[in-house]
């Protein structure tokens, strides 16, 4: 690893403290033309899915075939989420595409036009009202207005696509989602996790059809690799007031707007930059200050923000592509929507508190582009909040491997490169000692409950009595057994069982549950003798148990055996119940289980062998997951 130590004299520049009102920069200024960046140019009718889009479409088709009516796709920035939505939309007659910026709507309209030139497409926003088109691209701020919403019938659209789906927990989106009744709801995003803790996953019933982050996309050569340069920021952020979601503006500015800091940034940029740079700042004042300092040092730079610009956004993008600009300093303006594929340098001169924002901003530089072999990321790293936590997003190590790693420096994909100054490495090691990441919090919650119960908690006990959100065990470790393995809670024999049947445990844990039916069938299989639970079953054999389970409790009957599903099933009829079991859980689950299960000639069975000596442990783990998932499913449905 190359180590660089930088020492700059401390020169102080004082700015007059004035009140600065930062607008929500996720919307284009009224006097500025939208910047439309087209991913590909191709004659109409020739464009086709590629790379991750192909995989995501296959996953979405499986979800539809299984009878589900909503799903989320999580794809890293630069993989073509909008084109994916357009390809998926070909299977629906009328489509509503919802976004929060008119710029995104225009880009989406262009993408859909490339895919479906025979369709009519219209914008529905503050300036245009083309609501009769086959595909309507609507601004959420316009559509959520009751006067505009009621111009459409609830069943006007067969497919609704929500772009940047992590916004969908907001009240404006909920108003729209509660009003419309589409055949299918598709949410697309690169960053599903919100800082405010609101549940985006619940909006799509936890149904994540496809997920790929930018690290995996880089490993598969679908995004450009990066060279990550960590430059030490000696600002003591512990002395700056933390306001709960951000640092105090005036105190932060006093630390940032210094000549010595600007010179350090300029030196690092000159040393490591390539040709086209986008720099992310904390505030308009910092963006203007740094742009001015760079220009005084013969660099072609500008600041781009909501408070009046030297150039409009579209003009600035054009200039940086042609080389008439070298650096654009901006404030959140490029987090979502606008892409400049030719960008090959990112400069972070702000403390990044939000992992979502950091992911979005890194994605700006990773798009593939002819002649771009990698993206250089220059990051000022100090002792601010999440300084070390954000770097885990770059790390290819998982679970205990990362926890036990001797260094805090992330292990990046083999085609990427890390270059941290020595002070940065020392800082990260110090922060690591003080910090407890989410996985450690989950471990702590588990051991606290284990001590209270005097035994290893079951998955359901952890859900009912633990002080951590149980769904995070699945999200972080792919299965409860995976957590136990990571936490070193398994014997050597149990570790052997886990490694042998890990794919099965993950399948039971993560298979989509739009209804309880899959787990009810599995529950019947587990209700047999322990040495027989893996034996094949028929729908007719499961039918009495299945019917009794769903009708013995009023809430189960109401939620999963309601009038809509068929009131005639409330009175037991083996033929009808068996047909439902064959059509829904058995056929659907066998089709989505990647060969672990099959349903042929009326027989449902597991397509892998369980060694006799492994049977008891695997039975208990499978039962724990099944009981947890049934309880959590009805608990969530009852709460809605």
Describe this structure in words.
Strand 10 (301-304), helix 11 and strand 11 form a beta-alpha-beta unit. The chain starts with 51 loop residues before the first helix and ends with a helix. The protein is globular. Helices cover 42% and strands 12% of the residues. The strands form three sheets. It has a seven-stranded parallel beta sheet. It has 25 helices and 16 strands. Helix 17 (471-477) crosses helix 18 (480-486), helix 20 packs across helix 21 (539-551) and helix 20 (517-527) packs antiparallel against helix 25. It folds into three domains: 52-212, 3-Layer(aba) Sandwich (Rossmann fold), CATH 3.40.50.300; 223-434, 3-Layer(aba) Sandwich (Rossmann fold), CATH 3.40.50; 445-639, no CATH class. The longest helix has 25 residues, at 615-639. The chain has 640 residues and is an alpha/beta fold.
Features:
Rossmann fold; 3 domains
Side by side, the strands of the main sheet go: 3-4-2-5-6-1-7
CATH homology group of the largest domain = P-loop containing nucleotide triphosphate hydrolases
Q: Mean of the pLDDT scores?
A: 85
The helicity comes to 40-55%
Cα-atom Rg, whole angstroms?
27 Å
CATH architecture of the largest domain: 3-Layer(aba) Sandwich
End-to-end distance, in Å?
A: 52 Å
- The fraction of residues in strands falls at 5-15%
Biggest sheet architecture? 7 strands, parallel
Q: Give the beta-strand count.
A: 16
Shape, please?
globular
Give the domain tally.
3
Broad structural category: alpha/beta
